[in-house]
Amino acid sequence: MILSRLASRPLLLALGLLAALALPWMVYPPVAMDIACWALFAAAVDLLLGFTGLLSFGHAAFWGSAAYVAGLIALHSGLPFPVAVLGGALAAAALAVPIGYLSVRLRGIYFAMVTLAFAQMIYFVVNQWRDVTGGENGLQGVPRELFGMDLSDPFIFYYVGLPLVLAGFFAVWRIVRSPFGRVLVSIRDNPSRAQALGYPVERYKLLAFVLSAGLSGLAGGLFSISHGFASLQDVYWTTSGQVVMMVVLGGIGTLWGGAVGAALVVELNDYLATAGFEEIGIVTGSIFVVIVLVFRRGIWGTARDLLEARSARHRSASSAADGASERLSSPV
Q1: Could you read off the pLDDT of 151-200 as tens digits, one per residue?
Q2: Which among 245, 267, 241 has a CA at the least distance from the CA of 258?
Q3: How would DSSP label each residue in 126-138?
Q4: Fewest CB within a 10 Å sphere: which of 139, 191, 265, 290?
């Protein structure tokens, strides 16, 4: 009974919200904001990978392009930073339309490689367009404007920016639980059957791709505002690889597992960098291999499956005990 209560969605959502509110009290506030942004980025990628079955190695293009667009809007317009972040998200979604239209016709590794190729094209454009993006120096001095409020304190900025992250998570959750999300799952499991049932598979994939890109852009725009700059690292292919690793660590198709993976990777990177350890990739790669071998469905996915299995055994034992009691109490 206790396990079934623990597994209830409202309680888990309340615990997740409590963890988000308490995060800057447990870790350094700028790191807390990084975790929140990467968690939303991972959830957006999981929407495409876990619920649509499309592995993209090009989502750095949307994260990074939104970072630059949000930075440019904040630098040159003086608008409140949420407007700049939303502008970056819209730019990322618009960029995803032609890329997705040319990519969703492919499957498997071919889709992944094509998205990677498009992302590298965006990286080249950003690197060469120095008058706008700053080239190798990046876009620096991005302000945090919000109706004259002093947002220089990262602790305060975390709570001001957190509603944007929560809104993004709500959007992902609503998409997954909608009839549209159920169609995406059917396309993931059997695209031929979904096509036979009359669903325009490529159109659904394109829409999922654009939505995933827009939510990734929301996270990327907030990330650049938080740091006060946008750099080439934001559009580099390793950024795509890192967010895919977060999704796999947390659990593909779990939606919330990406947040667990993001917290683990970001906090580990920060700890190793603070300790002066240079070969961070060796440690994170080793941990990734171990977790994938031990937790086949990721950390969150494995924990959820174990919890559900124990709850099922508990219900089965309770039903068997009730049946035995009824037989003993019935007259002969």
Answers
A1: 888 999 999 999 999 999 999 999 999 999 999 999 999 998 999 888 99
A2: 245
A3: HHH-HHHH-GGG-
A4: 290
Its pTM stands at 0.89
Contact by Cβ (8 Å): 253, 51: yes
Candidates 35, 54, 13, 65; CA nearest to 174 is 13
* Residue 141: C-alpha distances to residues 78, 81, 136, 144, 218 (Å): 13, 13, 15, 10, 20
**Cβ contacts of 43 within 8 Å, gap of 6 or more:** 168, 169, 172, 215, 255, 256, 258, 259
Q: Which residue type does 206 have?
A: L
For 28-74, the three-class secondary structure string (H helix, E strand, C coil) is CHHHHHHHHHHHHHHHHHHHHHHHHCCCCCCCHHHHHHHHHHHHHHH
List, in order, residues 6 or more apart from 144 with CB less than 8 Å away: 74, 81, 151, 152, 157, 225, 228
Q: Which tokens in the block code for residue 203?
A: 């159109």
For 140, the 3-state DSSP assignment is strand
